[in-house]
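Notes to self after the Tuesday call (sharing in case useful).
The group wants a holo model before anyone commits to mutagenesis around the pocket. I volunteered. Ligand is S-adenosylmethionine. Logging inputs and output together so the record is complete.
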Amino acid sequence: MTREFQLYIVPTPIGNLKDITFRAVEILKSVDIIACEDTRTTQKLLNHYDIETKCYSYHKFNEKERVNFFKGFINAGKKIALVSDAGTPLICDPGTVLIEELLKDGITITALPGACAVTTFVSQVPRYGEEFTFIGFIPRTADGIKKIVTDNMDKHLIFYEAPERILKTLEVINSARGDIKIAIGRELSKLFEEIKIGTISEIQKYFKDGIKGEIVCMLYPSENIDKDQLLQRIKILKSKGFKAKEISVILSSLFDENKNKIYDAAAKM
Ligand code: SAM
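Result:
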């Protein structure tokens, strides 16, 4: 026996049609209507599972005006399931506006656990600790990217990015943080899924012909180091014949320190 709710938030597969729970299918069959982003996308899933529930579209451009429409169903005693095109609604997908409005009216809501690209990714990529920061899609401008990656140097920083932009984005990150260690998850749960872990330059080399498919990316944190330890390392690298520029790239990749500052210190030494 499970409690009944008026609105169910239902995750759908992020690639493999089988990645949906028994309960999710049961709820999608039993509700009166399904609110979905794109009726054609959701219909494919419904056909696969012989779900005959009628779909109504809502998306980020009509979410607000759709609120009263969905409230009308609920006030008439009907139950709704909310899905997005793929994965978990409200995770980089619409739903926030609708939920906020329905909560104001005391409508009962629950979310089912299920497929999500970020959790699928972090559950198979080694991290230095439990903590991570997920920012959704990374900003598109170079300034926006630089700010967010330097503001979060000490964290595992996870973001979504489009395949056509990721290599350029990695270049910008390299210019701000150095050749740091990163992890890329591509096409998770699909035929050509892969996880690649390495420095930015290694990843760029691996994907030199471009990246296709859906991408999640994680930047590993840079370690903290005090000033004396940093100077000590600069000294060692200089004694081994490394140039100031090389030293600044190496040490800024390893530690939470600005590349230009290291360069200046190495050049002066
Ligand atoms: N709601 C979804 C979720 O729960 O993950 C995310 C929707 S967001 C609009 C779509 C982005 O999620 C894609 O551009 C990609 O960055 C990421 N994504 C979705 N499916 C993925 C997959 N199978 N593999 C890797 N990344 C994926």
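Two things stood out.
DSSP finds eleven helices and ten strands in the chain.
The chain has a mean pLDDT of 94.
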